[in-house]
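Ticket #96: bound-state structure for zinc ion.
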Amino acid sequence: MDCAKCGEPMRLTEKDTSSGRDIREYKCTNCGYEDWEVRGPALWQILHDDKEESEAAKATANAPGAQAHLPEGRQDSAKSLWSRFLAWLDDLHKAK
Ligand SMILES: [Zn+2]
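RESOLUTION: The complex was predicted; output attached.
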């Protein structure tokens, strides 16, 4: 980055990515003029977002509440089907 006042190349004085953006501050060593530029989202912010998205997708798939929209009776019938199956196994053992 060149100085806007004298055209000399400016020195990078600070790089701040704490806000999630790559903000770079420059100072001209020739005339002391200071300037800054924003280089879009910081790399860690991009990685962070990716991680959050994939974790959010996982959480949605695995969340107990994900099946909450199913009718109440569905779990009960699954349970009774299972108990009927166990009872059937029990009968098989008894039959032997
Ligand atoms: Zn300058």
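RESOLUTION NOTES: The pocket of zinc ion is lined by residues 3, 5-6, 8, 28, 30-31, 33 (CB under 6 Å).
TICKET STATUS: resolved
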